[in-house]
Design goal:
heterodimer; A: mainly alpha; 2 domains; 8 helices; 74% helix; 0% strand; B: mainly alpha; Growth Hormone, Chain: A; 16 helices; 81% helix; elongated
Amino acid sequence: MSEETRGRALVGGALLAAIALVGIYLAAGGSSYTPAKPQDPCKHRAWRSPEGLQQIAEQFTLSALDGAACQLGVSRETLARALATPESRERFTERYGISDEELARAVRAGLLRAVDDAEEAGALNPLLAVPLRETLKSIPLDQAIELINNAESLLDNAQSFLGPAQGLLEQFLP
Amino acid sequence: MLVSFNLVMALAAVPAALLARRVGPGRAAAVGLAIFAGAGLACAVSEHLSTLIAARSVQALGGALAVTAVLELLPATVGSERRATAIWATAGATGAALGPAVGGLLTELVSWQSIFLIQVPIALAAAVPIFAVARHEAATGVLSTELRRTGRPHLLANLALAMVSAAIAGALFLLVLLLIEGWRMTPIGAAIVVSVMPLAAYVASRFDHLVSSAKARAAAGTILISGGLGGLALLPKAEVALTVPPQVMVGIGLALVLSALTETALAGRAPQAIHGGWTISARHAGVVIGLLALTPIFTHDIAEQRHDAIDAGTAVILDSRVPPLLKLDLAQRIESRLQGEKGKVPTIGPAFDPLPSDPEERDEVVLLREELQDQLNRGATHAFSPSFGLAALIGLLALIPIGLARRVDL
């Protein structure tokens, strides 16, 4: 083999190897990665046919987070991490320049949206929704956050309150 | 620190070569090695970053003097100028590839200071035989006329060297960072992984005499480096095994191109030390340019990807079927991990400990952990893609000067 042929073979081999590697990696999905973008919290998210108190509470929490995040202009995921501890909440409000009052208003709005969603999904008795809304409109921030974190206790208490009341109403209403 | 060392090497290589010609290569090499050893010791005992950078810069001065002077001494030792050039170029290529692997091993096994301490006896041991040469040599005293007599450096070969070096800096520097910062490997683990590159470079250097055309070797080497970098830019998964083929390609390419271009830049030119100085200068300037061009890109991208991956991971948790209280507890623990890692891609596993005792919940949480870690790994891998891609492009651009050089062949 002449020197020139060997040189050409070397360059050709290198080119083939480079194209093969890039081609194989592309075919294996090397360029397909895009991070899963969190959904827009302002868009309505249908509830996943909840069964039982725990699942209702879960959907309630997610709806409340969506509502509050929408109000604040952040993702639901960011807000969920922000509400995890007082320290993370402080970091969050500092970073986004949000006052405690603004946060409280947003969280309350989120809880109200969760009540609306729960009612719409047939998971919350309309008789309970009205007083619940009234209560939530003026609830302090810490309690509101606690309700997001532990919606189960709120719904459990509400249902147990409603149980006898609903029985009475049903007796009197046509 | 990396930039300062390479910048000083780039600026000092040619003046150091001139100095070596004036005082004699033996003396210059011995003094250079002594400075290198002394500054290495100073690096090891440095307590502040500023003193470490200063000591490392002095070390670069000593290194520039020693490396260029040695090129003048080699022909007498190995028998011919051509063989000396080949050995000198191969040593440079292997050393460049070996650096991160050895550095990582020493950092993990001993300490970062040991990287510098180990250089001291090695440099002094190399200086001893050179001292014997130095005692018998006379100074040439040609500094004032040297530049005029040496002629111009081989512009195209040196330009190609600079571009290829920028790309190689990307390969080495970015890969180490991807493994440690992105995939959270230990320095020793990363060192073992990146040792594939010098190993491939060493094996390839054994066979590069089979093709004597320097132009063909330079072109093939550049294509292999760019192809390997392209592969690293397109890693389909965060798996170490997938970095091996690109590394092998970069290693082989590195051995081919550095030796071919260095030999070309030195062929038929004298004095060797000064033209060797130009190649050292070009290579280190390329490294500086590569680091300065690539660092801001990947720093920005990794911060963005980290944020996106965490959001995506939290979405996975919130949409999962684990109980709501556990979800929010997990979100809280992940937030704590994020704060603890201070901007790095976090190791998310510990945020899931202890696992729930209920077997069903535990299975769900384990699945979540894997999904979230996958999001993070893929995000980190992708964050390096634009930088690897740019490094590949810089490498490909080196084909222009290689193609333009009509007389590249030796």
